[in-house]
Amino acid sequence: MTVHIYGVSCSSTRKARQWFRKHGIAYKERNILHQPLTIEELKNILQMTVEGTDEILSTRSKIYKELNLNVEELSLQTLLKLIHKYPRLLKSPILVDEKRFQVGYHEEDIRQFLPRKTRQLQWLQWKVDLGLMKG
C-alpha cells in the first residue's frame, strides 16, 4: 500500500515525507505546482472528505483572496477547474492511500497510516510503559 503525498514545497509536506520515511512507509510525492491534480483526482479526493471542499481549500492562501472566491456560488465543476488551474488553492499536504485521507501534517492523525499491527504493538508498549499491564 503506497501513500500519495500531494502538496507544495512547504514545512508540513517535508514533515510528512520525513515521518513516512522514518516509519518505513512507501510513499509517492507529487508537487502539485509542477503537476496539478486532474479533475478526476480531485473528485476522488473529495469523495474521501467529510466536509467536502471546506476540508481541502486553503481559504487563507494568497490566490484564494486574490480570486475573491465565494465557493457557495460556484458549481463543483467550476471550482474543480479553478483548483486545477490554481493548485495553491489546496491545503498542503494532502495524504491519501486506498483507505485513508488526511489534510496537513498532524503528528497524532498521521499515525493512521501505520500498519494496524504496528499500531497495536505501539499501544501495547504504551500500556506496559504506563504499568497498565501485568507483565
Parts with pLDDT < 50 across at least 5 consecutive residues: none
Query: In sequence order, what are the helices and strands, one letter per element?
Result: EHEHHHHEEH
Q: Which structural class best describes the helix and strand composition?
A: alpha+beta
How large is the count of helical segments?
Answer: 6
Q: Identify the quaternary structure here.
A: single chain
| Share of helix, binned | 40-55%
Task: Give the strand order of the largest sheet, numbering strands 1, 2, ... along the chain.
Answer: 2-1-3-4
Cα-atom radius of gyration: 18 Å
Q: Distance between the terminal alpha carbons, to the nearest Å?
A: 34 Å
Question: What kind of sheet is the major sheet?
Answer: 4 strands, mixed
Number of strands: 4
Identify the notable features of this structure and list them briefly.
single chain, 135 residues, alpha+beta, four-stranded mixed β-sheet, 6 helices, elongated
